[in-house]
Protein 1
Amino acid sequence: MLQRCQSKKVIIFTFFHAREACANEDKNYNDDGRPKRTGTFYTASAHIITTVVGSGVLSLPWAISQLGWIAGPMALISFSLITLFASTILADFYRFPDPVSGRRNYTYMDVVKVNLGGRYNKLSGIAQYGNLVGFTIGYIITSANSMVAIKRSYCFHKHGHSFGCHTPINLFIIIFGVIQVFLSQIPNIQELSMLSLLTTVMCCCHASIGLGLSIAKVAGGRPHVKTSLTGVFIDGDKSNTNNLWTTFTALGNLAFAYGFSDVLIEIQDTLGSSKPENRVMKQASLAGISISTLFYMSCGLLGYAAFGDKAPGNILAGFGFFEPFWLIDLANIFVVIHLTGAYQICGQPVFGFVESFTRHRWPNTGLVNHEYAINMPGYGVHRVTLFRMIWRTTYVIITTVIAMMFPFFNDIVGLIGALSFWPLTVYFPIKMRIERKKIPIFSFKWVWMQTLSMCCLLTSIAATIGSIQGIVKSLQTFKIFQSIA
């Protein structure tokens, strides 16, 4: 009798222990079976600021100088409002069909697929991942320019501002690429939260230094600085064809400055579900875009006031400032750290897309699916697959080589912005909104949405033409793999 009672106690204990273990395991996973998401309003805002206030902020004084005091600020505000409008729409498509309780969509492509179908899904994938690759290449070029600027800054301080101090850029592109090889082994975007917060701080620091130096230059009298209400005049003629091309490129630069729609859904997928993700994402988008626009208006307008029509393409690496050299060096160090994180934010969706495809295509292949546990001091156990290591390393090498082949900062930035802005920020969100809400054709809401989309399409086409013309012009005097800053 005693033995039977003891046996029952063991069974009851085992049952409750198993149930408790299952409950603890459930706490570590979301309702879709994936590891629990821990993102918050603050981490989402940090991801957005890291992505938005990237290399684009450094070219804003140049972009404003091409457009002038009237069109420049108007274009900045217009792009910010359009991006905020589109991000608000996209946030409601993370879950389908209900924006609060529906099934999750993990990528931009998933969102387009469930709302518009397969053909649009493929087009959005080409646009999204093609432009994310372009972003990572642009970040490599900008970071390398900042590293070169650190070396040249000391040279100018030592030998004088008239000394050439020309430095090959390829070595610094390779250094940045090596750093990214290691960072690219971070499994997913959710594990980038700390790096993203750090890069957000770095972003604020280098933008603040650029802003402070511009204010100091304006306060110091800024001799022989010429500005205009309508932008730069080339050869004394505003209608000059070259002036038209640079104006189009400037529009592409401004579009690039607000490009984060490519990764909005991926950022939203990091949010915890204690609050509706769409509401938190809308708040994070408003905060991120507002802070970014504040920096952009300040840096762009004050940078233009400081340098006028002679504003460099990159205010920190283009040597609009020479002294204090240590402060300029510090700002460029902040730029490099910032873009190190930005590369990962834009690269992770590309990594994830290819790895998800290979897992579904070859589910029983050890190269793709077998994980190896590596104990890393200070980090804990890090799990890797051979395919992830090979694929991500190869991706970094390819983007690094392309950056060495085409290191044209402003034209590359303008082209990326032009290609990505209309389809990803405007066209797909508006089309999905019309389809889901069943907005009648030729109703007021349908007409103004289509008008907005058409205006943005024309702007993107003009910016693409201007950027391509600039790249063609640069290629006429450029020697491949022999770029010197």
Protein 2
Amino acid sequence: MAQECRLGLLLALLLPVVGASMPGTVVRLNEAALSYVSEIGKAPLQRALQVTVPDFLDRSGERLRPTRIQILNVHVPHIHLKFIAGFGVRLSAAANFTFKVFRGPEHLELLLPVVLQADVHVAQGSIGTPVVSISTCFSLFDNAIVLDGSNSMAPALLVPLQQHINAVLRDKLCLSIASLVQDLNVHMGTVIGLTPVGPESQIRYSVVNVPNITNDYISLDLNAVLFLLGKPIVLPLDVTPFVLPEHVGTIGAMATVGLSQDLFDSALLLLQKAGALNLDITGQLKSDDNPLNTSMLGQLIPEVARQFPEPMPVVLKARLGATPVAMLRTNNATLRLQPFVEVLVPASNSAFQSLFSLDVVVTLSLQLSVSKVKLQATTSVLGDVQLTVASSNVGFIDTDQVHALVGTVFEKPLLDHLNALLGIGIGLPSVVNLQYVTPEVSVYEGYVVISGGLLYQR
């Protein structure tokens, strides 16, 4: 069963198992992925074809003589996989079986070349997973060869012996392949499980359409739903289905993944609702180079100096009321935040006294990257941080003067906070033990494309 599970997972590489259309993700596996699976699938297939052969009953004498047959080795020198448009994948494999035939006190070894072919149908399951099944399967047998060093066998006995072996393998080999494919459906059930995004948030992928299969690739539209505290994140506006253009991504890539604007919007809405984008910045009085205290503010705002003749630490509380906006343009991804920042000082009763509040607008550049199976991002500020006074308990505030102080103090902690948060990443379409290698991320108008290789690690 362990061998079947491993090969089942290898066959899973043939299938784009996760993505979305509302919000939209499309996963497309290309011919290069089939070549990769063909290579790494040889060893597991060899182990799976190690079936048992019952004794052969020799009828050449006056009485029946049982002859034990054992498979010594199965060597698969070649596997070829190709897409069947509108259907699935065709598996063709060449296998050489080495048998030991125990006849009396001596034995002989036979080499039997076999060609296997199976058509795997790919469909959409009722619970939102891809479902695979064997449509046709057959084996073609060449003549058995008596290996050098073995005792000879009369043709009159060799012919019925091979007929016996062929009859057994004809059924058992296809049953083994069918079992592997059926076992794959069990693994597909894990695809729709919840994958953690943060401490209280998850993402779940499921198939929403029948697979689109051409002679060059297999593609699925999938639904990616983000959850916060068990509740789905729902976009406030209707979204349109996402269609991944035909010719995008790196030429020769195994996998091409398209992520629509809607997926980014959902992720940002989740972060906002979770409060993950909120930020508290506290000044430290003992730090000589930290300007975040009442003495520094008092030099710019006289009322602050009057109310607080002794230096007091200042706290900036940034709270995100408006939903962050991600903008995807060709070769350019940006993030726009509009936090409400309250400037506070601690009061004697452990509460805080508000000095003033600011409406802030900051535009950030997003640099997207992929690590194994996660999409990550880092940010940097584009242009100036925009500040406007929302309210004041310390009289008139010259925004230009405050901008230099508050903007400098606010910018670095904000970037540190966002980069740590976005560095956690969000899970991309994958299966167990599979990750992306040498991925390239490209930004287009309204969507992002990830293309690259795949690595399966047992």
